[in-house]
Amino acid sequence: MEIYTYIVLFLLGICIGSFLNVVIYRVPLNKSIISPPSSCPACDQKIKPWHNIPILGWLILKGKCANCGAKISIRYPIIEFLTGLLAVAIYYKMQTIDIFYLVNFAIFATLLALSMIDFDYKAVPDSLNLLALTLAFFSSADIIENFKNALLMMGGMSLIRFYVSYLIKKEAMGEGDIIVAGTMGAVLGIKLSLIAIFLAAVLAIIPSLYNRFANKDIELPFIPFLAMGMFLAWFFDSYFLELWSKLYG
């Protein structure tokens, strides 16, 4: 029966991933995520229901609009696939489907959406960012502790932001990053949050260098790396906490 649970969760996950694609496209443009129905951005033709099937729809259409032939980004099925993987991975970690599973899945799914928006706009909507933070308070039964850890992480990141911005004479960190730090604190606790930020910095090194020298751009969206670092720290929490104990006692 376990394999069927994973299959069902993956299928549900890719359906939610399809909805995330709508969120990623419409929220930054201040459009409704409910109506009108999905349509081709190039010709405005409504997408038929069978063309909107997660992953399969893109494959059936061969990555092109059925009406005008405009290219449909491969990012759509990738987001759907990643959301399906998230649903499976979170269940694998928690081994139960309860309210905390749903909340944690919603948090990481929202962070996935924020990551894609940050790549597109180098800014994220407060509505989604604050949604992830609010959900994070309820990621476990200890709501007060989660809230306290969120405040500590946001305060710490704000302090670093002020000092570094003063030293380098320009904005060192976005407000969105600070809110994500609060989400980290609530979900992970302080130790794992610090590990997550370290992982994010390591993951960002090569993309940052590439972006600087290949694209001549010194600004790299950091929320995607914070989200990846947070997920890794959450998923492998036992390993990282054991490593922390060995290093710092």
UniProtKB/TrEMBL annotation:
It comes from the Bacteria. Residues 11-93 form the Prepilin peptidase A24 N-terminal domain. It is a multi-pass membrane protein. One of its GO terms (biological process) is signal peptide processing. GO terms for molecular function: aspartic-type endopeptidase activity. Residues 106-207 form the Prepilin type IV endopeptidase peptidase domain. Pfam families: A24_N_bact (PF06750), Peptidase_A24 (PF01478). It is found in: Cell membrane. The chain crosses the membrane at residues 6-25, 74-93, 99-116, 150-168, 180-210, 222-241. Keywords: Cell membrane, Membrane, Transmembrane, Transmembrane helix. One of its GO terms (cellular component) is plasma membrane. InterPro entries: Prepilin_IV_endopep_pep, Prepilin_pept_A24_N, Prepilin_peptidase/N-MTase. PANTHER family: PREPILIN LEADER PEPTIDASE_N-METHYLTRANSFERASE-RELATED, TYPE 4 PREPILIN-LIKE PROTEINS LEADER PEPTIDE-PROCESSING ENZYME. Belongs to the peptidase A24 family. This is Prepilin peptidase. It comes from Caminibacter pacificus. The lineage of its organism: Bacteria, Pseudomonadati, Campylobacterota, Epsilonproteobacteria, Nautiliales.
